[in-house]
Structures are given as structure tokens and as C-alpha cells.
């Protein structure tokens, strides 16, 4: 569902709201649905469409464009080749055959590969290149790895408006064109950053710096609401991509017969006594988006796992895989858990985190029920974590 809305003079939102979608990439939970935003920029001489929509929503985009009675579209700017934004391009080109596609050189190849668009339809633009639409000018800035290598953003100088595609986006289905609830959008945008942007944190930091010279009055992403007061999301991104960590332990765990859970609960209490915040996730019941979000700024990750076939519980393997793939900025990591007759759980979990720049703190592994010595070791682990955090002045 969606209707045409004017963003500012001669710039229109023409995308689609996906209220019902609950999973992205058959992996990422979407508790609040999402939207695939596309925009028309109508200059005095030329008209550009910025991005398209996910193919199942193609009819909505087509009918929104028809409602605007544009006559012609001169350019379709594809800022990112992933199909939730580029997927309706073939239908657009069929309906508006005179349109040329504007893309980075990398994006051009992807559009040809993924959507079978003819090479001669695509004009590549250089970083910083401008395209005049008459009384509006599009300026393209390469912003690689938000979150694919070909991504760029588009700035309309006359309106101080930045079209950012996935960059600054949030998965929220809403009838509101602009952000109305900053706290809710902050959470959704952080979740989105955690799920797909976090592995490219240092490159994104450079991309943010690149945007500093621009006067940005508005940011129009391709998921979620438009930021008409963009400072809060720009500040949030600066924080998320920084090296600053919080006095926080993320503790994803699974427990089969209760021993690991007893240890985890004991560790949580010990950390709380030391004023260390804990984010606890019972893995078999966890929304992985929430776990990813918690990884954005925690100083320490502790994985709790029982032993299954001598190795870690598959849920703990998933958590370790996720943490390794997302490359959070955590400084310390450890493992707690239990075993029945033999275990290589710690070695296997620790070996699954090669991407993390963490100091591994002494793990605590109990045989069966945790005993006095195990609780003492958990106290020591809590003391060590608290001391390490204090050293970082957290
Ligand atoms: Fe929203 Fe990377 O596509």
C-alpha cells in the first residue's frame, strides 16, 4: 500500500509500504514491517526516479507514477543494486523506454547481472559527478559498503536533501512520511545498522566524514520514514561506527538441563553487583535482531553453552557465527558453560571468532552442576570484566 506524498517542492515519495513482511532475506526479523521508498525528483527540464521497489510491490510504484501523470521519466537513479530497491527497474524501463539508468560502475555490472538490463541503457557516474534536471541538480557520492560495494547516495543541492538508500534506513511500515517518534526510529535504525552495516563500520565512518561538507536539511532513505530533523540519526551513526564501547556485557546462552543457566544467572548477578550492565539472551527464544543490536556497543561478549557431542550447543554456534560475521567493536570475550563427560566447547567457540579483535578472558566450564570452585571462577570472571571496563573508563 502507498500513496503519493510530496516531500518538498516537486519531490515526491512514490514507494510502497510493506505492512505484513516479517522476514528479510529469509533471515532478519522485521517486527514492524518495512517500506521500499522511491522518489520522483521533477526538475524544470528533466525528471528522475530514485530507486524502485521490491518486485512484489511493483504495481504500487507503477500506479503511483501514473497518478503523478509525469509523461516521461528521463533518469532512473539506482543507488544500490539489491533487488528490494532495483528489482522493479525492468518494468520501469518497459513503461518508460526513454529512461536512462544512472549508476556507479560497480552497480552497472550488478544491474546487468541481476536484472538483465541492457548495457546501453546505463550511464555510469563518477564520485562527485552532477546531473542537472534544470532547476534541480543531483550530485552523486560514492558511499561503498552501506552495505554492498556499489552503493552511492544522491544529494539535491537546491533542497539540501540527501537520498541515502539503505544508509540511515529503518525497517518500519508507517503511514507517516516523516519521523514522528524519534525513539522508535532510533531503535529500528540501530537494529538495521546492526544487522547489515556493522561489519563495514570503519568504511561507513569514512562515508560519514565524506558527508560532513554537505548542508543536509533532510535525509530520505529507502526504508522507513524521512528525517526532516536529521541530526539525531547522523549523531547516532557517528556513535555506532565509533570505537566507543559501553560498560555492558552481551550474554547469549542456551541451557539444556539447567547447569549452564545456573552459571549464567550467577554471572549476571555478579556483574550487576559490579554495576556492569548485562543484556541476556536465551538463544532458542531470541530475536536475532535484538541480539545484533546489543552487539553494537557492548564492551564484552560472553557466550553460555552446554556441551553437545563434545562441542557447543548449535544455538551457541549460531550466536558465535553471528558475532563473528557482524564484527562488533567488543574488546573482550569469554565462554561459560557445562559438560557431562568431555568437552571441546570452549576451543570450538573461541575458534569461531577470528574476526573479533577481542582479548579472551578465562572461560568457566563446569562438569555437571556448577560447584563452589566454579562459582568462585564466575566471581573472578565478573571481577575481571568489571576491572577491564574500568580500565577503559567506561
Ligand atoms: Fe534495502 Fe540492501 O537493500
TrEMBL record:
Signal peptide: none annotated. One of its GO terms (molecular function) is electron transfer activity. Keywords: Hydrolase. SUPFAM superfamilies: Flavoproteins, Metallo-hydrolase/oxidoreductase. In the N-terminal section; belongs to the zinc metallo-hydrolase group 3 family. Pfam families: Flavodoxin_1 (PF00258), ODP (PF19583). This is MBL fold hydrolase. Residues 249-386 form the Flavodoxin-like domain. SMART domains: Lactamase_B. It comes from candidate division KSB3 bacterium.
Amino acid at each position: 500500500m502507498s500513496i503519493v506524498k510530496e516531500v518538498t517542492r516537486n519531490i515526491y515519495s512514490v514507494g510502497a509500504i510493506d505492512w505484513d513482511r516479517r522476514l528479510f532475506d529469509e533471515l532478519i526479523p522485521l517486527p514492524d514491517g518495512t517500506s521500499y521508498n522511491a522518489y520522483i525528483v521533477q526538475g524544470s527540464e528533466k525528471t528522475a526516479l530514485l530507486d524502485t521497489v521490491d518486485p512484489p510491490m511493483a504495481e504500487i510504484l507503477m500506479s503511483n507514477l501514473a497518478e503523478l501523470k509525469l509523461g516521461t521519466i528521463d533518469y532512473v537513479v539506482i543507488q544500490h543494486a539489491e533487488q528490494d530497491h532495483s528489482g522493479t527497474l525492468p518494468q520501469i524501463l518497459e513503461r518508460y523506454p526513454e529512461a536512462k539508468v544512472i549508476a556507479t560502475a560497480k552497480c552497472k555490472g550488478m544491474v546487468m547481472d541481476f536484472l538483465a538490463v541492457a548495457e546501453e541503457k546505463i550511464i555510469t557516474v563518477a564520485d562527485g559527478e552532477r546531473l542537472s534536471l534544470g532547476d534541480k541538480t543531483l550530485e552523486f557520492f560514492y558511499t561503498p559498503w552501506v552495505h554492498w560495494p556499489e552503493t552511492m547516495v544522491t544529494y539535491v543541492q537546491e533542497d539540501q536533501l540527501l537520498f541515502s538508500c539503505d544508509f540511515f534506513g529503518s525497517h518500519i511500515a508507517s503511514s507517516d512520511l516523516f519521523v514522528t517518534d524519534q525513539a522508535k526510529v532510533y531503535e529500528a535504525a540501530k537494529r538495521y545498522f546492526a544487522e547489515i552495516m556493522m561489519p563495514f563500520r570503519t568504511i561507513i565512518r569514512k562515508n560519514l566524514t565524506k558527508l560532513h561538507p554537505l548542508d543536509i536539511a533532510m535525509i530520505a532513505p529507502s526504508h522507513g520514514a524521512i528525517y526532516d530533523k536529521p541530526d539525531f540519526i547522523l549523531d547516532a551513526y557517528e556513535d555506532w561506527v565509533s570505537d566507543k564501547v559501553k560498560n555492558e556485557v552481551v550474554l547469549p546462552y542456551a541451557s539444556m538441563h539447567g547447569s549452564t543457566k545456573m552459571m549464567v544467572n550467577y554471572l549476571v548477578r555478579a556483574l550487576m553487583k559490579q554495576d556492569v550492565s548485562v543484556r541476556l539472551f536465551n538463544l532458542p527464544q531470541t530475536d536475532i535482531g535484538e541480539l545484533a543490536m546489543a552487539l553494537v556497543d557492548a564492551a564484552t561478549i560472553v557466550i553460555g553453552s552446554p556441551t553437545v557431542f563434545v562441542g557447543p550447543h548449535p544455538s551457541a554456534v549460531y550466536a558465535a557465527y553471528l558475532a563473528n560475521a557482524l564484527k562488533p567493536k567488543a574488546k573482550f570475550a569469554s565462554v561459560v558453560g557445562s559438560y557431562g563427560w568431555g568437552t571441546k566447547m570452549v576451543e570450538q567457540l573461541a575458534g569461531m571468532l577470528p574476526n573479533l579483535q577481542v582479548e579472551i578472558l578465562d572461560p568457566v566450564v563446569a562438569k555437571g552442576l556448577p560447584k563452589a570452585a566454579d562459582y568462585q571462577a564466575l566471581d573472578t570472571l565478573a571481577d575481571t570484566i568489571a576491572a577491564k571496563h574500568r580500565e577503559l573508563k567506561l
